[in-house]
Amino acid sequence: MRRKVAPDSSAAAGGEAERQDLIQLSSAICNGEDLSPFVRKAFASGRPESLLHSLRQFARSKESEIEEVCKAHYHDFIRAVDDLRSLLSDVDSLKSALSDSNAALESAAGPLLSSLDAYLEARAVAGNLSAALAAVRLCVRLLDLLARANTHLTADDLYLALRAVDAVERDFLDASPHATLRRMLLRLIPAVRAHAERKISKEFSDWMVQIRVASRQLGQIAIGRASASRQREEELRIKQRQAEEQSRLSLREADLSSIYSLEDSDDSDDLPAAIAADGSGFSSGGAVDGILGFDLTPLYRAHHIHQTLGLQDRFKKYYFENRKLQLTSDFQVSSMIPFLESHQTFFAQIAGFFIVEDRILRTGGGLISRSDVDALWETAIAKMVSVLEDQFSRMQTANHLLLIKDYVSLLGVTLRRYGYTVDPLLDVLSKHRDKYHDLLLSDCRRQVSEALAADKFEQMLMKKEYEYSMNVLSFQIQTSDITPAFPYVAPFSATVPDLCRIVRSFIEDSVSFMSHGGQLDFYPIVKKYLDRLLGEVLDVTILHLVESGGLGVSQAMQIAANMAVMERACDFFFRHAAQLSGIPLRIAERGRREFPLKKSRDAAEKLLLGLLQAKIDDFFILTDTVSWMADDPPPNGNEYANEVIIYLETLVSTVQQILPIQILRRVLHGVLTHVSAKIEGLFLSDSVKRFNANAVTGIDADLRLFESFADSQSHLFGDSEESDVNELKVALLEARQLVNLLMSNHPENFLNPVIREKSYNKLDYKKVVAISEKFRDSSDRLFSTFGTRGSKQNPKKKSLDALIKRLRDVS
């Protein structure tokens, strides 16, 4: 143990500061603090030796403390050493025993350890084998699913392939035994789905192209079936009209039942029925492939695949947008092709489009909604209305407008079966009704003018029965139900059947335009336009022909005969319009009006009468040879009268083969009235200064010839009333009364109102005065007064003078 040295007292005062540093350094060391501040301070002050000195002092101070502690526990250390020495001997004996035990244990446990190592190794191998088998089984199932997916992809069974891929993703992606296999699955699963989406999208695109062509064919077939259905309805209506006509003729009940025995229509002609009959195709996504080439399988398959891919909403939107684009493309009307040639394709394409959409709406599993279909239909009908408005405004041919109207009405019938509203289309047709009929009237006006211009106004000759049926019976203008012998000369010219055909065609075209347009009772409208045709076209055109001049007696006579036949034809026109409009004939007959061609008929008769009167005037030129102061009356009347009688007899023999009795009566009455006026005019003529009783006797003989002619024609009016038998003689009454007055022995009786009303009611007193003043007795001739002076005055002369004087006083 080191001895402790006492400090130097001389250095005590000088080392006070070092003592303090030493205390701080000791405190820092004891507390385990960082000594770097002390080191920096020592080097900073430039006295590192003091720090080293302090450290050495601290070490010496601790050594002394250790010595003191060792000194205090010296005996304890000795005892401990003794205990350790005794323990060392025990440990040696224990060590030898343990060594012996260890040797024995090693000799005994050696085989066991070898067995344990073998067991652990076998167990590790078994675990590895089990893991390998599990991984193999997983891989086998995975490869089986992948093989099935490949098979389905090869067979184009995309749905089954996607189901297999979904199973791989669900069951094997997270449980894949190796990272490489997992990476492969993560790469291939999206690739398979993308392949399926691309393939089905291509199929869908191909279907979109095919369905556009199929839609056009589908629309044409559907509209064609609607047309066939309409034709069956027309045939049924014709049979019903036949039944009505036969019932009016009181035919046997058996005939009526045979007429009403209609064949059942074939339901296969109806498009919905045909589709329903092939419902198996639609249930699997198909359509009527065999009938229409209409297949929805690719669409439904694409929808199903997109549902499987979780892209249903995107596909619905894609489908709607593409169909909308197709519809917009269908709206394009080519300006290179006339609309008359392209309208069927245009409307058939739209009809087929919406027939397909209706089927998809009902069987597509929510692929498209009702609101989407309605939106497409509103767009389509607005476009169709716009196209029709534009095309109708340009058309100037009635037949073209009718053809398009018929097809549009068939389109409306077709699409109405599927629940689409077609009223706007029908409104467009109704809106252009007046324009159509104006064009139709214009065409008819041209045809009527051409028919009249081409007619020679000669009686029509029919050599065969079919000609009679075509030109007479078909218009019900025959006067007898008995078929005449052939060849048959009709009382009318070729114009009449031509005009009837024009009017009948007009009626049928008008009814065709008005029918199937949403309006049930359209007969009043058809009748209104028929009245316009007869009044504004037929009547005006014939009237213009009559008033244009250049017609002879035979032509005027033929026109008058034609008008009589047209009067019967007009009854047929209104009956035909009623039948085609589907109303009973009794209702149509209630509103029957007067003859619509009355103006032209009256003008034709007036022209004929005027021409005949002009001919009579020519014969009356012969009255210049009449001797008005003859010594003796002519024995057989005057020459002009004989000529007129010969002409009238010839005229009647010719006219009664052409003109009806009523017209002939009116014509003869007018001619004889004119003859009467001409006879009266002879007495009033300025060329006749005076006349005597012999001249009056000659005129009386002439008048008796005319009256005899009138009596000879009474057989023509045998079906008339008794008052009509002497109708022709009444036409001569004024001349007869004048001659009777001049031949009367008491002409002053004219002043008696009773006698005048009974015998001279047709005479005008002014004319009587003028004529009476010209009358001279035979004794009044020149120089006769020298021989008769002083003789008694003639009583007749006295009476006539009194009459003249009284009539002058009255005037």
From TrEMBL:
<dbReference type="InterPro" id="IPR048359">
    <property type="entry name" value="EXOC6_Sec15_N"/>
</dbReference>
<dbReference type="GO" id="GO:0016020">
    <property type="term" value="C:membrane"/>
</dbReference>
<comment type="function">
    <text>Component of the exocyst complex involved in the docking of exocytic vesicles with fusion sites on the plasma membrane during regulated or polarized secretion. Involved in polarized cell growth and organ morphogenesis. During cytokinesis, involved in cell plate initiation, cell plate maturation and formation of new primary cell wall.</text>
</comment>
<feature type="domain" description="Exocyst complex component EXOC6/Sec15 N-terminal">
    <location>
        <begin position="55"/>
        <end position="223"/>
    </location>
</feature>
<dbReference type="GO" id="GO:0000145">
    <property type="term" value="C:exocyst"/>
</dbReference>
<dbReference type="GO" id="GO:0009860">
    <property type="term" value="P:pollen tube growth"/>
</dbReference>
<keyword id="KW-0268">Exocytosis</keyword>
<comment type="similarity">
    <text>Belongs to the SEC15 family.</text>
</comment>
<dbReference type="GO" id="GO:0090522">
    <property type="term" value="P:vesicle tethering involved in exocytosis"/>
</dbReference>
<dbReference type="InterPro" id="IPR046361">
    <property type="entry name" value="EXOC6/Sec15_C"/>
</dbReference>
<protein>
    <recommendedName>
        <fullName>Exocyst complex component</fullName>
    </recommendedName>
</protein>
<dbReference type="InterPro" id="IPR007225">
    <property type="entry name" value="EXOC6/Sec15"/>
</dbReference>
<feature type="domain" description="Exocyst complex subunit EXOC6/Sec15 C-terminal">
    <location>
        <begin position="424"/>
        <end position="774"/>
    </location>
</feature>
<dbReference type="InterPro" id="IPR042044">
    <property type="entry name" value="EXOC6PINT-1/Sec15/Tip20_C_dom2"/>
</dbReference>
<keyword id="KW-0813">Transport</keyword>
<dbReference type="GO" id="GO:0005829">
    <property type="term" value="C:cytosol"/>
</dbReference>
<dbReference type="Pfam" id="PF20651">
    <property type="entry name" value="EXOC6_Sec15_N"/>
</dbReference>
<dbReference type="InterPro" id="IPR042045">
    <property type="entry name" value="EXOC6/Sec15_C_dom1"/>
</dbReference>
<keyword id="KW-0963">Cytoplasm</keyword>
<dbReference type="GO" id="GO:0009846">
    <property type="term" value="P:pollen germination"/>
</dbReference>
<dbReference type="Pfam" id="PF04091">
    <property type="entry name" value="Sec15_C"/>
</dbReference>
<dbReference type="GO" id="GO:0006886">
    <property type="term" value="P:intracellular protein transport"/>
</dbReference>
<dbReference type="GO" id="GO:0006893">
    <property type="term" value="P:Golgi to plasma membrane transport"/>
</dbReference>
<dbReference type="GO" id="GO:0060321">
    <property type="term" value="P:acceptance of pollen"/>
</dbReference>
